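[Discussion] Sanity-checking designs against the backbone

I'm trying to build intuition for which residues belong where. Below is a structure token string of 163 positions. I'd appreciate it if someone posts a full sequence so I can compare it with mine line by line.
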């Protein structure tokens, strides 16, 4: 099963949901999507907007691979459950977030081989297909939370002009 999650924020991420819905119509694997506030309703997958923490944990646990935005909570959950995580950063240019901080998070975690990043949405299907082989590995590291916290703190300081 492929679990797709966009987190709980109200920022739109129809771009990811539509692409995963298109892919789901072509593959022979169950896809379950958590779509939050997105207006688009998938036609080829099971989906829900919100559910309990327990149900989210169950979906992470049973997934073969997790596809998510580059939100820290989603990434940590995938790592915690030792699942391959394909992340698609939300982009300011598409009005998916107020800035491009998810690009920075994705770059750093890709460097550390914690996630596989989709920089071009048209490559998602190809990268998803590679999740069956060793090209997507999960390296669990206790330092991840600390590194993410430092990164986020530095972002906040730079916005305030403290850096």
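Best answer:
Here's mine. Compare freely.
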């Amino acid at each position: 099963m492929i679990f797709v999650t966009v987190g709980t924020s109200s920022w739109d991420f129809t771009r990811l949901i539509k692409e995963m819905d298109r892919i789901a119509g072509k593959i022979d694997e169950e896809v379950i999507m958590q779509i939050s506030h997105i207006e688009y309703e998938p036609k080829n997958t099971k989906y829900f907007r919100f559910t309990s923490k327990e149900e989210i944990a169950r979906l992470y646990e049973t997934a073969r691979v997790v596809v998510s935005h580059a939100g820290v909570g989603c990434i940590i959950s995938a790592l915690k459950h030792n699942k391959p995580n394909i992340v698609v950063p939300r982009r300011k240019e598409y009005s998916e977030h107020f800035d491009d901080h998810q690009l920075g998070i994705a770059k750093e975690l890709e460097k550390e081989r914690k996630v596989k990043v989709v920089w071009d949405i048209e490559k998602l299907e190809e990268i998803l297909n590679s999740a069956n082989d060793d090209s997507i590995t999960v390296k669990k590291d206790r330092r991840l939370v600390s590194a993410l916290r430092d990164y986020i703190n530095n972002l906040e300081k730079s916005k305030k002009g403290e850096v």
